[in-house]
Amino acid sequence: MKAATWFRITAVVMVLFAVGHTFGFLTFRPATPEGQAVWTAMNEEYFSMGGQTFSYGGFYVGFGLFISAALVFQAWLAWWLGQMAERGVMEARGIAWGMCVLEAVGVGLSARYFSAGPVVLSAVAAVCRAAGALRMGKGLVAVGRESATE
User: Fold this and answer.
1) Which helix (H) or strand (E) is 54 found in, with range?
2) Which residues pair with 141 in a beta bridge?
3) Which phi and psi angles does 117 have, rounded to 5°?
4) Which residues are bridge partners to 47 per DSSP?
5) Residue 70: how many other CB atoms lie within 10 Å
6) Which residue from 71, 58, 65 is spatially nearest to 15, judged by alpha carbons?
7) pTM of the predicted structure, to 2 decimals
8) What is the dihedral of CA 106, 111, 112, 118, to 10 degrees?
9) How many Cβ atoms sit within 10 Å of the Cβ of residue 103?
């Protein structure tokens, strides 16, 4: 497969990840009485910071939505990497490898702190990004320079 195809697959995976993450954390409710007590405490315990009042539950929702937004951004970036790969833009390869490393870290964190779903999606995204970066070899040109064939 071409590099662009790998990056577009990554974009789709990241959109699925964002949707799953958002739905999962917004609808999750603890099943045990102990878990429900923690959930209630998070939402009913307030603290002040910087002249404002917050709940731990509010922080949980805010960070969760921020992660969803970051996943959507990663999907957008993957799509653009595909377009850059089609044009043979050399800088796209470095960005792709950086995103691959980020996703590999995501695999480790997901394996440690989350369930199999995030592990699998992170692993698939990392593999797709690596495959795309590996496919970007010959014919690359630096941004602002013309290729030898133009």
Assistant:
1) strand 52-55
2) 89
3) -55, -55
4) 54
5) 13
6) 71
7) 0.84
8) 60
9) 24
| Residue 134: count of CB within 10 angstroms of its CB | 14
- Could you tell me the two tokens for 35? 């878990």
Yes or no: say if 100 and 129 are a contact pair by the CB < 8 Å rule: yes
Which of these, 73, 83, 74, 101, lies nearest to 10 by C-alpha position?
A: 74
At position 12, the amino acid (one-letter code) is V
Q: How far apart, in whole angstroms, are the C-alpha atoms of residue 105 and residue 39?
A: 28
pLDDT tens digits for the chain (150 residues)?
A: 999 999 999 999 999 999 999 999 899 999 999 999 999 999 999 999 999 999 999 999 999 999 999 999 999 999 999 999 999 888 899 999 999 999 999 999 999 999 999 999 999 999 999 999 999 875 555 555 554 443
Beta bridge partners of 89: 141
In the chain, the amino acid numbered 109 is: L
